[in-house]
Amino acid sequence: MQLEQYKSVWESLRSTILEKMTALAAGLKTVVEYTVSDVCISGPDEFLLSDEYRISFDLKNEKEVTVLSVEFALMDAADAGEDDGCAVMCGFNGHAGLILGGYAPARYSNDCYTTDVDVLSTRVDEFDIEEAAQFIVNEALQDETLLKEVREASK
């Protein structure tokens, strides 16, 4: 997708994504033992060779070790070797990049990447904050590999 077209799609989705991520971070602050960072908007990233924009926040322990990163991104089809369009994805990544889950509608289908902003907007709207919070608290933060890695990194 051309950068200007990508930016236009991002601008149409940014406020809703920011609202959802801010609400998710606020909800987690009340139920987890970790410090929840401020929500931030980032992108493009020369280091990652990507023009993609994302909104994210981290959960850190008392030693400032990042336990979990939550990142909602507008994925560019070109970065995935596809022809055209965008996809939305919210990833839950543990310490040292451990993939713990996420939200990626139509991920392994021909409909994953689309140029239809209404479809992308619907996918963002369908991201369920309560379901995400429950998954983070009850599954992601209970992952044995994650807990082991965080203990090691916190020594």
Automatic annotation (TrEMBL):
Lineage of source species: Bacteria, Candidatus Wirthbacteria
Protein name: Uncharacterized protein
Species of the source: Candidatus Wirthbacteria bacterium CG2_30_54_11
